[in-house]
Amino acid sequence: MRKQIGQTIQLYLKEHQSLYLFTIVLFAMGVVFGAFIVNSLAATQKQELISFLQYFFKQFDQHGITDPRQYFQQSSLFYLKTVGVMWLLGLSIIGLPFILLVLFVKGVIIGFTVGFLVNQLAWQGISFSLFGVLPQNMLIVPALVMIGVGGIAFSLRLLKTGLLVKRELILPYFFRYTFLVVSMMGVLLIAVLFETFVSPQLMQYVLK
Protein backbone atom coordinates (compact mmCIF):
# COMPACT_ATOMS: atom_id res chain seq x y z
CA MET A 1 0.00 0.00 0.00
CA ARG A 2 2.78 2.41 0.96
CA LYS A 3 4.66 1.55 -2.23
CA GLN A 4 1.56 2.18 -4.32
CA ILE A 5 1.01 5.58 -2.70
CA GLY A 6 4.64 6.51 -3.30
CA GLN A 7 4.44 5.47 -6.95
CA THR A 8 1.24 7.47 -7.45
CA ILE A 9 2.84 10.58 -5.94
CA GLN A 10 6.00 10.21 -8.02
CA LEU A 11 3.93 9.75 -11.17
CA TYR A 12 1.92 12.91 -10.52
CA LEU A 13 5.08 14.89 -9.74
CA LYS A 14 6.71 13.77 -12.96
CA GLU A 15 3.69 14.18 -15.24
CA HIS A 16 2.54 17.58 -13.97
CA GLN A 17 5.69 19.52 -13.19
CA SER A 18 4.42 22.69 -14.88
CA LEU A 19 1.14 22.55 -12.94
CA TYR A 20 3.01 22.14 -9.67
CA LEU A 21 5.19 25.13 -10.48
CA PHE A 22 2.13 27.21 -11.32
CA THR A 23 0.19 26.27 -8.17
CA ILE A 24 3.24 26.79 -5.93
CA VAL A 25 3.74 30.26 -7.41
CA LEU A 26 0.02 30.97 -6.93
CA PHE A 27 0.21 29.82 -3.31
CA ALA A 28 3.31 31.97 -2.75
CA MET A 29 1.46 34.96 -4.17
CA GLY A 30 -1.29 34.28 -1.65
CA VAL A 31 1.26 34.25 1.18
CA VAL A 32 2.71 37.57 0.01
CA PHE A 33 -0.77 39.06 -0.35
CA GLY A 34 -1.71 37.90 3.15
CA ALA A 35 1.43 39.49 4.60
CA PHE A 36 0.65 42.68 2.68
CA ILE A 37 -2.85 42.82 4.21
CA VAL A 38 -1.24 43.01 7.68
CA ASN A 39 0.50 46.25 6.74
CA SER A 40 -2.73 47.71 5.37
CA LEU A 41 -4.72 47.17 8.58
CA ALA A 42 -5.82 50.22 10.49
CA ALA A 43 -4.36 50.81 13.95
CA THR A 44 -7.68 50.03 15.64
CA GLN A 45 -7.97 46.74 13.75
CA LYS A 46 -4.44 45.76 14.76
CA GLN A 47 -5.20 46.62 18.38
CA GLU A 48 -8.35 44.50 18.38
CA LEU A 49 -6.47 41.56 16.91
CA ILE A 50 -3.54 41.85 19.31
CA SER A 51 -5.94 42.06 22.27
CA PHE A 52 -7.64 38.88 21.12
CA LEU A 53 -4.24 37.26 20.56
CA GLN A 54 -3.05 38.16 24.06
CA TYR A 55 -6.24 36.73 25.56
CA PHE A 56 -5.81 33.56 23.50
CA PHE A 57 -2.18 33.19 24.60
CA LYS A 58 -3.13 33.64 28.24
CA GLN A 59 -5.87 31.02 28.10
CA PHE A 60 -3.78 28.65 26.04
CA ASP A 61 -0.80 28.93 28.37
CA GLN A 62 -3.01 27.99 31.32
CA HIS A 63 -5.21 25.29 29.79
CA GLY A 64 -3.83 24.32 26.37
CA ILE A 65 -6.47 22.69 24.19
CA THR A 66 -9.35 22.04 26.59
CA ASP A 67 -10.75 19.08 24.64
CA PRO A 68 -8.16 17.57 22.25
CA ARG A 69 -10.53 14.86 21.05
CA GLN A 70 -13.18 17.37 20.03
CA TYR A 71 -10.55 19.60 18.42
CA PHE A 72 -9.23 16.64 16.42
CA GLN A 73 -12.73 15.72 15.28
CA GLN A 74 -13.57 19.28 14.24
CA SER A 75 -10.28 19.80 12.39
CA SER A 76 -10.56 16.42 10.67
CA LEU A 77 -14.11 17.21 9.59
CA PHE A 78 -12.99 20.60 8.26
CA TYR A 79 -10.28 19.08 6.09
CA LEU A 80 -12.57 16.25 5.02
CA LYS A 81 -15.07 18.83 3.75
CA THR A 82 -12.31 20.88 2.11
CA VAL A 83 -10.85 17.85 0.35
CA GLY A 84 -14.32 16.66 -0.64
CA VAL A 85 -15.12 20.02 -2.21
CA MET A 86 -11.77 20.11 -4.05
CA TRP A 87 -12.34 16.56 -5.31
CA LEU A 88 -15.78 17.47 -6.64
CA LEU A 89 -14.44 20.65 -8.24
CA GLY A 90 -11.79 18.58 -9.98
CA LEU A 91 -14.48 16.42 -11.56
CA SER A 92 -15.84 19.34 -13.56
CA ILE A 93 -14.16 21.72 -15.96
CA ILE A 94 -15.88 24.76 -14.44
CA GLY A 95 -14.44 23.85 -11.02
CA LEU A 96 -10.85 24.50 -12.09
CA PRO A 97 -10.67 28.20 -11.14
CA PHE A 98 -12.24 27.46 -7.75
CA ILE A 99 -9.47 24.95 -6.98
CA LEU A 100 -6.95 27.70 -7.68
CA LEU A 101 -8.94 30.02 -5.43
CA VAL A 102 -8.81 27.52 -2.54
CA LEU A 103 -5.01 27.28 -2.80
CA PHE A 104 -4.63 31.04 -3.06
CA VAL A 105 -6.84 31.64 -0.01
CA LYS A 106 -4.84 29.08 1.98
CA GLY A 107 -1.71 31.04 1.12
CA VAL A 108 -3.39 34.29 2.18
CA ILE A 109 -4.37 32.80 5.56
CA ILE A 110 -0.85 31.55 6.27
CA GLY A 111 0.73 34.79 5.06
CA PHE A 112 -1.59 36.90 7.19
CA THR A 113 -1.13 34.71 10.29
CA VAL A 114 2.65 34.63 10.14
CA GLY A 115 2.88 38.26 9.03
CA PHE A 116 0.72 39.47 11.90
CA LEU A 117 2.58 37.41 14.51
CA VAL A 118 5.96 38.67 13.33
CA ASN A 119 4.73 42.24 12.90
CA GLN A 120 3.27 42.47 16.38
CA LEU A 121 5.39 40.10 18.48
CA ALA A 122 8.79 40.32 16.76
CA TRP A 123 11.06 37.44 17.83
CA GLN A 124 8.36 35.76 19.88
CA GLY A 125 6.12 35.90 16.82
CA ILE A 126 8.84 34.24 14.74
CA SER A 127 9.23 31.50 17.36
CA PHE A 128 5.49 31.00 17.58
CA SER A 129 5.26 30.76 13.78
CA LEU A 130 8.10 28.23 13.61
CA PHE A 131 6.72 26.00 16.36
CA GLY A 132 2.98 26.60 16.17
CA VAL A 133 2.21 27.29 12.51
CA LEU A 134 4.95 25.85 10.32
CA PRO A 135 5.20 22.17 11.39
CA GLN A 136 1.67 21.00 10.51
CA ASN A 137 1.55 23.21 7.43
CA MET A 138 4.61 21.43 6.08
CA LEU A 139 2.21 18.51 5.60
CA ILE A 140 -1.03 20.41 4.99
CA VAL A 141 0.21 22.68 2.19
CA PRO A 142 1.88 19.98 0.04
CA ALA A 143 -1.16 17.73 0.48
CA LEU A 144 -3.57 20.46 -0.64
CA VAL A 145 -1.28 21.40 -3.54
CA MET A 146 -1.18 17.79 -4.72
CA ILE A 147 -4.96 17.50 -4.48
CA GLY A 148 -5.28 20.79 -6.36
CA VAL A 149 -2.90 19.72 -9.11
CA GLY A 150 -4.69 16.38 -9.37
CA GLY A 151 -8.02 18.17 -9.77
CA ILE A 152 -6.65 20.62 -12.33
CA ALA A 153 -5.03 17.81 -14.31
CA PHE A 154 -8.26 15.81 -14.31
CA SER A 155 -10.29 18.85 -15.39
CA LEU A 156 -7.88 19.46 -18.27
CA ARG A 157 -8.10 15.77 -19.16
CA LEU A 158 -11.90 16.07 -19.34
CA LEU A 159 -11.54 19.09 -21.58
CA LYS A 160 -9.09 17.26 -23.81
CA THR A 161 -10.80 13.89 -24.21
CA GLY A 162 -14.48 14.75 -23.77
CA LEU A 163 -16.19 12.81 -20.97
CA LEU A 164 -19.36 11.97 -22.86
CA VAL A 165 -17.53 10.77 -25.96
CA LYS A 166 -14.68 8.76 -24.47
CA ARG A 167 -15.83 7.79 -21.00
CA GLU A 168 -13.82 4.55 -20.98
CA LEU A 169 -10.62 6.53 -21.55
CA ILE A 170 -11.20 8.82 -18.57
CA LEU A 171 -11.96 6.16 -15.94
CA PRO A 172 -8.31 5.21 -15.23
CA TYR A 173 -7.51 8.88 -14.63
CA PHE A 174 -10.57 9.20 -12.38
CA PHE A 175 -9.47 6.27 -10.21
CA ARG A 176 -5.91 7.56 -10.02
CA TYR A 177 -7.12 11.05 -9.09
CA THR A 178 -9.45 9.63 -6.43
CA PHE A 179 -6.69 7.44 -5.02
CA LEU A 180 -4.41 10.47 -4.77
CA VAL A 181 -7.09 12.48 -2.95
CA VAL A 182 -7.72 9.68 -0.44
CA SER A 183 -3.98 9.30 0.15
CA MET A 184 -3.54 13.02 0.78
CA MET A 185 -6.48 12.97 3.17
CA GLY A 186 -4.46 10.47 5.18
CA VAL A 187 -1.55 12.93 5.21
CA LEU A 188 -3.88 15.69 6.40
CA LEU A 189 -5.11 13.48 9.26
CA ILE A 190 -1.50 13.01 10.35
CA ALA A 191 -1.07 16.79 10.26
CA VAL A 192 -4.20 17.22 12.38
CA LEU A 193 -2.85 14.70 14.91
CA PHE A 194 0.37 16.70 15.13
CA GLU A 195 -1.55 19.97 15.41
CA THR A 196 -3.73 18.54 18.19
CA PHE A 197 -1.21 16.74 20.37
CA VAL A 198 2.28 18.09 19.55
CA SER A 199 1.93 21.72 18.45
CA PRO A 200 0.17 22.77 21.69
CA GLN A 201 3.16 21.53 23.68
CA LEU A 202 5.54 23.43 21.44
CA MET A 203 3.43 26.60 21.66
CA GLN A 204 3.26 26.42 25.44
CA TYR A 205 7.04 26.07 25.48
CA VAL A 206 7.36 29.24 23.41
CA LEU A 207 4.90 31.15 25.61
CA LYS A 208 6.86 30.26 28.74
TrEMBL record:
It comes from the Bacteria. InterPro entries: SpoIIM, SpoIIM-like. The lineage of its organism: Bacteria, Bacillati, Bacillota, Bacilli, Bacillales. NCBIfam families: spo_II_M (TIGR02831). The chain crosses the membrane at residues 20-42, 85-105, 112-133, 139-159, 171-194. This is Stage II sporulation protein M. It holds the Pfam family SpoIIM. Keywords: Membrane, Transmembrane, Transmembrane helix.
